[in-house]
Design a protein that fits this description.
Number of strands: 22
Largest sheet: 11 strands, mixed
Helix content: 10-25%
Order of helices and strands: HEEEEEEEEEEEEEEEEHEEEEEEH
CATH class of the largest domain: Mainly Beta
CATH architecture of the largest domain: Sandwich
Shape: globular
Number of domains: 3
């Protein structure tokens, strides 16, 4: 009898234990001894006649899923080794820009000084001096069409596009960083008021390379970006601008550590941002961590256009049509919840026909881009 009783109660006990344990699961935030708020600096000055920007914010504690908070009211000054000082002006919360006459010069050394409010006190921050090193031009920026799939010859081809660059460095520099900006034409497959737009995006990953260990002055076929058939970038016409920056070894090491951080999966023992050494220190509190980097880099750029047919590009607008309405009746929610993709007038044999969509982006290309043609754009 006791044996039967135990047999009956064992599953019950297991269920109770599982329920109790499931109620005891709480989020674990590791104690990493990180300050609640750290100064975050993102700044870059170049040798080009362009506006230079320094962004300043405060970080949030670990475990809070939110962007850093822009920090207003700072005094930001960039000085060179000849003691020429330039004040950067705040244009929006946490964003400080250079005056029109400012331009970095190769061979000069620069540093940034920041006076920032911090609770009830004001703290000063200085960056380490950094020399603006020369950067070679991008000697070649080009692309190659790549056949991804070929189900039946000349019938179901699918193409991709790999963009490369080649650069020659004769100055002795060994460290480089690249970023790119993309723009492409979006042409909706319906004759609507906003049919043609230009869509833009920028690089998200960190692209750096050193040839210090190779003893070569040339970087040949350096991959920039691969464009697959899963995007409509190559549907009509595409352009990419690539910027190449010179780095010193310290900044290169910073980008390497940041790259390692962003490529990791976020496990318990991954590198935390506060462990990546910045070149900016707090004057009053040297032990205080600062996040980010003040970059001093010469820059060279090159742009190419791609106006070629690529097979198998995805059609993002194949499911636009929602309904078809016949006749002249009023459309409830027109131009707010439903939009007319095609309005075919009445003929002798057929009533007025309207094809409708519930997706505004199928009717209005400005949902993704702008109707303003970029100043650099060539042709349509």
């Amino acid at each position: 009898m006791k044996t039967v009783s135990l047999f009956i109660f064992k599953p019950v006990v297991l269920v109770v234990i599982l329920i109790v344990c499931s109620r005891c699961i709480n989020e674990f935030v590791p104690d990493i001894n990180e300050e609640n708020e750290l100064l975050v600096v993102e700044g870059l000055i170049t040798d080009q006649p362009e506006t230079c920007t320094i962004k300043i914010s405060k970080s949030l504690p670990v475990g809070l899923k939110s962007d850093a908070k822009p920090l207003s009211g700072c005094i930001v000054t960039v000085s060179d080794n000849t003691d020429v000082r330039t004040r950067f002006n705040e244009t929006e919360a946490g964003t400080y820009i250079s005056p029109p006459e400012f331009r970095g010069m190769v061979g000069k050394t620069y540093k940034v000084h920041i006076t920032a409010p911090s609770g009830s006190e004001v703290l000063n921050y200085d960056s380490e001096p950094a020399e603006m090193l020369p950067v070679p031009p991008i000697s070649d920026l080009y692309y190659e069409k790549i056949k991804l799939r070929d189900v039946e010859p000349d019938l179901f081809d699918v193409d991709g596009c790999q963009i490369y660059l080649t650069t020659y460095d004769l100055s002795g520099n060994n460290y480089f960083r690249w970023e790119y900006f993309e723009t492409w034409v979006l042409r909706l497959p319906y004759i609507v008021p906003n049919q043609i737009c230009w869509v833009s995006d920028r690089s998200r990953n960190i692209m750096i390379k050193s040839n210090a260990n190779y003893g070569e002055s040339r970087m040949f076929r350096q991959p920039v970006v691969f464009i697959s058939d899963a995007t409509d970038r190559l549907k009509t016409k595409y352009s990419i601008l690539v910027n190449q920056y010179s780095l010193n070894q310290d900044e290169y090491n910073f980008w390497v550590e940041l790259q390692n951080l962003t490529e990791q999966s976020g496990g318990l023992y991954d590198v935390i941002p506060a462990s990546i050494a910045s070149n900016i220190k707090c004057v009053e509190k040297p032990e205080q961590n600062v996040l980010g980097y003040f970059s001093v880099s010469a820059k060279s750029s090159q742009r190419i256009f791609i106006d070629e047919e690529f097979a198998g590009i995805v059609n993002l607008y194949k499911n636009c049509v929602w309904d078809t309405v016949y006749g002249d009746g009023v459309l409830p929610g027109q131009d707010t919840t439903v939009w007319v993709l095609l309005d075919k007038p009445q003929s002798f044999f057929n009533p007025r026909t309207r094809i409708l969509t519930k997706t505004r982006g199928c009717y209005d290309c400005t949902e993704r881009g702008t109707k303003v043609k970029p100043s650099f754009w060539i042709g349509d």
